Amino acid sequence: MNPLLRQLPQVSKLVERFKGTYPEAIVKEAVRDVISRYRAEILEGARNSLSGLEKDIEEEILRRIKPNLRRVINATGVVINTNLGRAPLAREAVEYIAKIASGYTNLEYSLSKGSRGSRQEHVEEILCRLTGAPSAMVVNNNAGAVYLVLNTLAQGREVIVSRGELVEIGGSFRMPDIMRSSGALLVEVGTTNKTKVQDYVNAISEKTALLMKVHRSNFFIEGFVEEVGVGYLVKIAKDSSLPFYYDIGSGLLLEEERLLGFRTGEPSFAECIKEGVSVVSGSGDKLLGGPQAGIILGEREIVERLKRNPMARALRVDKLTLASLEKTLRIYLEGRPEDIPVIRMLTEKETALKKKALKLKRLLKGFKDLEVGVLRDVSRPGGGSLPSLELPTYCVVLKHRKLSTSELSKRLRLSDPPVIGRIKKDLLFLDVRTVFDSELKLIKVSLEKALGLT
Ligand SMILES: *Cc1c(COP(=O)(O)O)cnc(C)c1O
After folding, report:
1. What's this model's pTM, rounded to 2 decimal places?
2. Which of 247, 269, 283, 325 maximizes ligand 1 atoms within 8 Å of its Cβ, making it the mutation to test the pocket?
């Protein structure tokens, strides 16, 4: 027998060593795991010492204790980053979640009447006041909203959509698939790059239930292109007594110029209502800057039908979503959109970004073998929204003399807290647009761990 195998301590001894510090059940699992790994490595001849055993066990325990869903630092510059959880919530929205979640609430109880109320009431009136909509409703997410609208208004009947708008949103969400599963029959009109008024008009028949427009949230087409504007679609629908549904995707609440100070053509809820769209839906956690939700605004009669659909129950939002959504909407009502992180990040001034980058650079100076600089660059802050938008930004740029840039990037990703940047020209770019001030020092901590200094 290999003498090293004999030297392996007993499981119970190792468990004894750690169980005062960590939960015993987890210690046992971790010890068994590491011991059997060591045993296999010794037998394979891949290990010739037991030094590091206790350290490996402790690491294994920590790995098992750490939550899977963790806070990460987004240094990609992409504000609406679906992989990284989309919109970070405003602080007051987060505090309100904690308050509502830790006790009982009037979620479905009318305090004035002393009887059953509707969970929708808490946000419906505010949404209407903000956008001028006659009626409003909130569901789990915008994919759910699309499903509910189509299933309610067009099951077994035809929905006319431009071929250029049959988009894939990401993951497995493809517009034609969701339309099919809602029971609506898709009628594609126009071509990929051009759809004209006459294409819609010619497709309308007695089987038509709905005219639909889908915002191309995550890409744009340029060149020989033509699409029918919202105003025209409203008129075509009215002339045929059909409802017109616009899925605006990103859920910008008010006019782009008013909220962001620039114009890329991103539609907003308020403009859609003003133009006379019958029903419009968008996400709560994209440009609106709130929690995951599907926000539906529209004519009272249509929204009432949506609420009566049994699927509305399956798609309903929980109280935590309502709590944070209401707080987020109240920030808009109070005229402080800059207090919503998404809006603040999209409108952050170049001078402020430069200052933040220089501050981060100072913090990251002095690591051995690490070159640190600041470069002006452009961020594509939209990700799944504002696809054509590029904004000037400042990045802290890292280059390690011994580690490859992909290795450095990987180590930062696996560090604590994880830091996600972007690689460009063999340099690691940390775009400060999406980094909170409170996270600057944490990037230093993360880098210390990534380079093995702690
Ligand atoms: C993002 C998006 C959706 C899906 O919204 P979720 O909130 O992610 O469910 C649907 N339609 C469009 C146009 C989108 O951009």
Report:
1. 0.93
2. 283
